[in-house]
Specification:
The complex is a heterodimer of chains A (about 300) and B (about 425).
Chain A: H1 18-35, E1 49-54, H2 60-71, E2 75-80, H3 92-101, E3 106-111, H4 116-121, E4 127-133, H5 139-153, E5 160-164, H6 171-182, E6 186-190, E7 206-208, H7 211-215, E8 220-223, H8 229-232, H9 239-246, H10 250-253, E9 261-263, H11 276-279, H12 286-307
Parallel strand pairs in A: 1-2, 1-3, 3-4, 5-6, 5-8, 6-7, 8-9
Chain B: E1 6-10, E2 13-16, E3 21-24, E4 27-30, E5 33-35, E6 44-47, E7 52-55, E8 57-62, H1 75-84, E9 87-92, H2 103-116, E10 120-125, H3 139-145, E11 149-150, H4 160-172, E12 177-179, H5 184-187, E13 192-193, H6 196-201, E14 205-206, H7 208-225, E15 229-231, H8 237-248, E16 253-257, H9 259-263, H10 285-296, E17 302-303, H11 312-315, H12 332-341, H13 348-355, H14 357-363, E18 378-388, E19 407-417, E20 420-423
Parallel strand pairs in B: 1-6, 2-7, 8-9, 9-10, 10-11, 12-15, 13-14, 15-16, 16-17
Antiparallel strand pairs in B: 1-4, 2-3, 4-5, 7-18, 18-19, 19-20
Classes of the chains: A alpha/beta (about 300), B alpha/beta (about 425).
Chain lengths: ~300, ~425
């Protein structure tokens, strides 16, 4: 495969071709080796400035990006929404223009509004990397999940990947969906009817509201975090009932193929989405996902910085 | 601009649905009144061969933003945009600041309109005090101040009992109700139509049911109270179907469609351009076709713009927090000619009726006609003029439109109010 990366921004996997996705994954493989060395650092982004702008709070994604940037030798500024001028009434656009005026090269942003990255990318010369925009996308999470699957199976083609939980509010589900479909996997979404809309069928996803149906024959199951707040909005009665019908336990585990992977983007609710022993068991690749995340983010930063 | 107050519009195709006229003929104007051309001595002749002359278009749904939000629009700029779009009259929505829930605010708008307006400004009063949906506005006083209709546009009275009383009370003053139909609990924090695209984009949706439930409520109230309720900016096929059935039963319910619901769908939002954010939201292609069918079979008798100016700063932002609404006065005729007339969906006469007799019947006003003796309010159209809309040339103070850069066929080239050209030249 011989393609060059031409995008200054990583906005959503939806925008990428299969070849571009593979290029990111191949590049991430190289950076994964770097992360396993004694000296876990390369000078690829030396002299580049990366601003981590987390308008919506985040711990694991922010730390993962920060470490990725450090390992690429970038200079780093961390900004949180609550400490930025947004609280003084400055518009997002003005904040971004100020960051640009400081000669930053890449802005890694998390924001609650879908499309916020696409909006600012239209207005700035800086590279824009999406670290989550509402329920719209979380491309580096999707890529790291796909990286993890590819690492185990070699290829995504024909694999049955089932994503379970609050699909409606999940940027992880959407980013996974676009990437998995582009690479030829079969995608199933399952969850309570209120949280798992049928409209996804229109882009080729199988949608069901029954765990068994979703798990039988699956090569991969990716369990999404259930947010307690949703039950107060009338989406489902309780996490107990959720666990009863959609939680993965040792009985439902048997419906999966014997070699199947159990994934979760974290943070996990033990004994809600999945039982503790499965989270810690041999099928689980949850912590590998975390390690792979850093390599994937290094790859994304490296590729986008190369265009600037 | 006028050299003479007596002139004849000559050689145009005159389309006047109020008289069932669609033929080449001359229209005489003397001292601001339509007259028989034979009665004018030594008139100025204005050659309009190849053009269309119609009664002045009325837009029953316009936000002029004055008083209160004059950074986005004023009576002066909004009515100039109206004139440039071919409208001779607009109904100003009452969600100003302060809102139109008192005779004083109505009188202020009327005074400012006398001073600054380029076209006729009809005022609309609120249904409830401060548009809060809790207590009835002083509807009798508003009537005395001159409002032609009542609405809480932008809001919708959720309390059905209050709405029932408001409709009955308004009936006794002869004022039609224009309702923004929206169930607030179903709308929630929605920012676009709930469907395939909101699901794919991860945005909060506004289901069609949010409109339809209130449309049905209004049909029930219009029936039991036997009074006029007008459904503003109808957006779903189901709403159209309900209104069709209600009208067939003789219930006094009318509806308007906007040019954007006729021409655009929710798919337009996939690049997060806030110029496609309005309320009710752009719906599906099936809904769009449903609205067009309603226009074709006469279920929907009015086309109105919901001209809603917002400043660049307000609108150029994250999709979630941008305000709803777009400007539309200057693009209404071009969009409708392109989408409805040149496609063969409506005849020219049917299209003109949506802007003339439709509004006149709703408001009970003696407008929208070229009968001898009527005020000379006239819209002159070149139905075949192809052009690319450039919003930077707009007379509106705001620029929030999805139609910028789009190509259209047909537009207004002259607008006459009281015999005076308020847009375009006599030599067309």
């Amino acid at each position: 495969m011989n393609i060059t990366w031409t995008r200054k921004d990583l906005l959503e996997i939806y925008d990428l071709t299969a070849a571009e996705i593979e290029l990111i994954l191949d590049t991430a493989e190289e950076f994964k080796k770097v992360c396993q060395r004694n000296v876990k650092k390369v000078p690829a982004l030396r002299g580049k400035t990366v601003v981590n702008f987390f308008v919506e709070p985040s711990t694991r994604t922010r730390i993962s990006f920060e470490l990725a940037e450090q390992r690429l030798s970038a200079d780093i500024i961390n900004m949180a929404g609550s400490s930025s001028s947004l609280t003084k009434g400055e518009t997002l656009l003005d904040t971004i223009k100020n960051i640009e005026a400081l000669q930053a090269d890449i802005i890694v942003m998390r924001h609650s509004a879908p499309g916020a990255h696409e909006f600012i990318a239209r207005h700035t010369k800086c590279g824009v990397v999406n670290a989550g925009d509402g329920a719209h996308g979380h491309p580096t999470q999707g890529l790291l999940d796909i990286f993890t699957i590819r690492e185990k199976f070699g290829s995504l083609k024909g694999l049955n990947v089932s994503i379970i939980g609050d699909i409606l509010h999940s940027r992880v589900a959407r980013s996974n969906m676009w990437g998995l479909l582009k690479l030829g996997a079969n995608v199933t979404f399952a969850g309570p009817a209120t949280l798992c809309p049928r409209e996804f069928e229109e882009v080729g996803v199988r949608v069901c509201h029954n765990l068994r149906e979703a798990l039988v024959g699956a090569d991969v199951v990716n369990l999404l975090r259930i947010q307690h707040e949703r039950q107060h909005c009338g989406f489902f009665p309780s996490t107990t009932e959720y666990n009863q019908f959609f939680g993965l336990n040792n009985d439902s585990l048997k419906w999966l193929k014997p070699h199947a992977l159990v994934m979760h983007p974290g943070p996990i609710n033990r004994d809600v989405e999945l039982s503790s022993d499965i989270a810690d068991g041999e099928r689980s690749v949850i912590l590998e996902q975390v390690s792979n995340g850093m390599a994937v983010r290094m790859a994304v930063l490296f590729l986008t910085a190369g265009v600037l | 601009m006028n050299t003479k107050s007596h002139y004849i519009l000559s050689g145009a195709r005159v389309v006047d649905p109020s008289q069932g006229i669609d033929r080449i003929m001359d229209i005489g104007v003397a001292n601001g009144i339509i007259v028989d051309p034979a009665e004018i001595t030594n008139p100025e002749i204005i050659d309009l061969a190849g053009k269309v002359v119609a009664p002045g278009f009325i837009d029953v749904h316009v936000h002029l933003r004055q008083p209160g939000n004059t950074g986005a629009e004023t009576i002066a700029t909004g009515t100039r945009a109206a004139a440039a779009g071919g409208f001779t009259g607009v109904v100003a929505m009452p969600n100003t600041h302060p809102c139109c829930d008192s005779a004083g605010t109505i009188e202020l708008i009327k005074r400012d309109s006398q001073r600054h307006a380029r076209v006729r400004v009809y005022t609309c009063g609120c249904l409830s005090k401060n548009m809060e949906g809790k207590e009835m506005a002083p509807i009798g006083s508003l009537k005395n101040a001159g409002v032609v209709a009542l609405s809480d546009d932008g809001r919708c009275i959720q309390d059905h009992n209050l709405m029932r009383h408001v409709v009955a009370y308004a009936k006794s003053f002869g004022l039609p109700i224009m309702d923004h139909c929206e169930d607030e609990s179903l709308k929630g924090d929605g920012v676009m139509h709930e469907g395939k695209w909101s699901v794919l984009l991860g945005m909060q949706g506004i289901p069609g049911a949010a409109e339809e439930i209130i449309v049905q409520r209004n049909i029930i109230l219009a029936n039991t109270i036997d009074w006029k309720i007008h459904i503003q900016h109808i957006s779903t096929r189901e709403s159209v179907d309900m209104i069709r059935r209600a009208r067939a039963r003789g219930i006094q319910v009318t509806a308007e469609a906007t040019p954007h619901h006729i021409s655009l769908t929710d798919e337009c939002i996939k690049r997060f351009d806030t110029n496609y954010k309005m309320n009710p939201p752009l719906r599906t292609e099936d809904d769009r076709q449903g609205v067009i069918e309603g226009l074709r079979d006469g279920t929907i008798t009015i086309i109105a713009t919901d001209h809603a100016p917002h400043t660049y700063t307000q609108k150029e932002t994250e999709f979630d927090i941008a305000p709803f609404g777009i400007i539309g006065l200057e693009t209404a005729i071009p969009v409708c000619l392109t989408e409805l007339y040149h496609t063969g969906i409506l005849t020219l006469s049917e299209l003109v009726a949506k802007f003339t007799t439709g509004p006149a019947e709703l408001l009970g006003l003696e407008v929208g006609t070229l009968k001898n003796g009527a005020h000379a309010d006239i819209t002159i159209i070149d139905p075949d003029l192809e052009f690319v809309y450039d919003v930077s040339q707009s007379y509106s103070k705001s620029r929030n439109t999805p139609f910028n850069g789009m190509k259209f066929k047909g537009r207004a080239i002259g607008t006459v109010v009281n015999g005076n050209f308020v847009f375009g030249e006599k030599k067309a």
